[in-house]
Write a structure and sequence with these properties.
Number of strands: 5
Number of helices: 3
Radius of gyration: 17 Å
Largest sheet: 5 strands, antiparallel
Distance between the termini: 18 Å
Length: about 140
């Protein structure tokens, strides 16, 4: 699989400092949405693919949002073969989660002390989901 034009975007990063100052118990509800488009250059066996990762942290008692974070990671892909492509997809998934974490750590206010937005993301499982999504849309035959 050839991967090019990788593009990470930080869409939203909001902190409710007043809630965070109280050091509340937080509950997290990460959401991941896959998206698939035709390649911008119209190439056969190519697509633009990526996903959005949302990390919401709510104060446990009030359910008020203490942290809201949304990022997206998209790239153009040229399909080659199943065996090689799964390895490349796994690297893409790892990079997406890594970029999500790094951008959070680099852009959060200094007074916010939070580590690991998504504890131990299931890279293998998510890579299989991505591959299944591509297969469902006809990029791989049975």
């Amino acid at each position: 699989m050839k991967i090019y034009n990788a593009d990470f975007k930080l869409i939203r990063l909001d902190f409710n400092i007043e809630i965070l100052k109280t050091k509340p118990l937080l509950e997290s509800n990460p959401e991941i949405v896959l998206e698939l488009f035709k390649a911008s250059d119209g190439m056969k066996d190519a697509c633009r693919f990526g996903f959005r990762i949302a990390s919401h942290f709510l104060e446990k008692n009030s359910k008020k949002e203490a942290v809201g974070y949304l990022s997206e990671y998209f790239s153009d892909f040229v399909i080659e073969n199943k065996t090689k492509d799964i390895t490349d997809l796994k690297r893409f998934v790892e990079n997406a989660f890594l970029n999500h974490e790094i951008q959070f750590q680099e852009n959060k206010p200094a007074e916010v002390i939070m580590d690991n937005l998504i504890l131990n993301p299931n890279i293998e499982g998510f890579t299989k989901d991505v591959f299944s999504h591509l297969k469902k849309h006809g990029y791989y035959s049975e």
